[in-house]
Design goal:
The protein is an alpha+beta fold. The protein folds into 2 domains: 120 residues, Aminopeptidase (3-Layer(aba) Sandwich); 37 residues, no CATH class. Helix content is 33%, strand content 21%. The protein contains 5 helices and 7 strands; from the N terminus they run βααβββαβαββα. The strands form 2 sheets. Strands 1-2-3-4-5 form a 5-stranded mixed beta sheet, sandwiched between helices. The protein has a two-stranded antiparallel ribbon with strand order 6-7. A hairpin with a 2-residue loop joins strand 6 and strand 7. It is globular, with a radius of gyration of 21 Å.
Length: 179
C-alpha cells in the first residue's frame, strides 16, 4: 500500500499517541504528554515523522539531537503495515535530516526484554553498545537550586538565592578551568 512520510506536528499527537499505546515493547510515561511532545517537536523542528496511509497515521518516530548525537524515540508501525519497509523508511528520514545538520551518530533506547525490537534494529545496521549503561534521575520542578543553606557575607540565603549566588560566583570566577 502506498504511504506518505511527513514531518510530525503537534496536530498529529492524539492519533500518534493511540498508535504508541498499541505497540508492544514501547514504554510511555509522564514525559510523553501533549505539552512535552509539543516542546520536543519545537526544539527539534522537522526531525520527527509520521507515515500516513490516506488520512490515517500508520507509523511514527520521534527524533531529536543535542548538537552532537541524534536520538530516536518511540518508533511505531501499525501491526498490519509491518514488514513492508515502513519502519526503515521512517528511520531513514530521521537519519537523513540529522546528517544534513552535521550530526554523525544517533542513539536509541530499547527495553532489555524487547527481543522483536532488537531484531529490527540489528537487522537495519544498529549496533548494541555493551560498554554503556543508562542511568536516570527524575527531575522535579523547583528542585534545580541547592537544598542546603549557603552563607555569604554573614547572611543566610534562601534556596532561590543560592542558585543566583552560585551563578553570580561562577560569572565572577569565569569558566571552569580558567584559573
Amino acid at each position: 500500500m502506498p504511504y506518505a512520510i511527513e514531518p510530525m506536528s503537534i496536530d498529529d499527537f492524539d492519533e500518534v499517541s493511540r498508535l504508541w499505546q498499541q505497540i508492544e515493547g514501547l514504554g510511555l510515561g509522564q514525559s510523553d504528554s501533549k505539552p512535552n511532545i509539543a516542546s520536543y517537536l519545537a526544539r527539534n523542528p522537522g526531525l520527527s515523522f509520521v507515515a500516513r496511509d490516506a488520512n490515517r497515521i500508520i507509523g511514527a518516530v520521534l527524533c531529536g539531537h543535542d548538537g552532537r548525537r541524534g536520538c530516536l524515540h518511540h518508533l511505531a508501525v501499525a501491526r498490519e503495515h509491518r514488514k513492508q519497509g515502513l519502519g526503515k523508511a521512517l528511520v531513514a528520514a530521521c537519519l537523513d535530516r540529522l546528517a544534513g545538520l552535521g550530526i554523525l551518530k544517533c542513539n536509541l533506547f530499547l527495553f532489555a526484554d524487547n527481543a522483536q525490537g532488537e531484531v529490527f534494529w540489528r537487522h537495519t545496521g544498529w549496533v548494541k553498545r555493551t560498554d554503556l549503561q543508562v542511568m536516570q534521575k527524575t527531575v522535579r520542578k523547583g528542585r534545580g537550586a541547592r537544598s542546603r543553606v549557603l552563607r555569604t557575607g554573614g547572611r543566610r540565603l534562601k534556596t532561590v538565592e543560592v542558585a543566583r549566588a552560585c551563578s553570580h560566583t561562577a560569572l565572577k570566577r569565569g569558566p571552569a578551568g580558567a584559573g
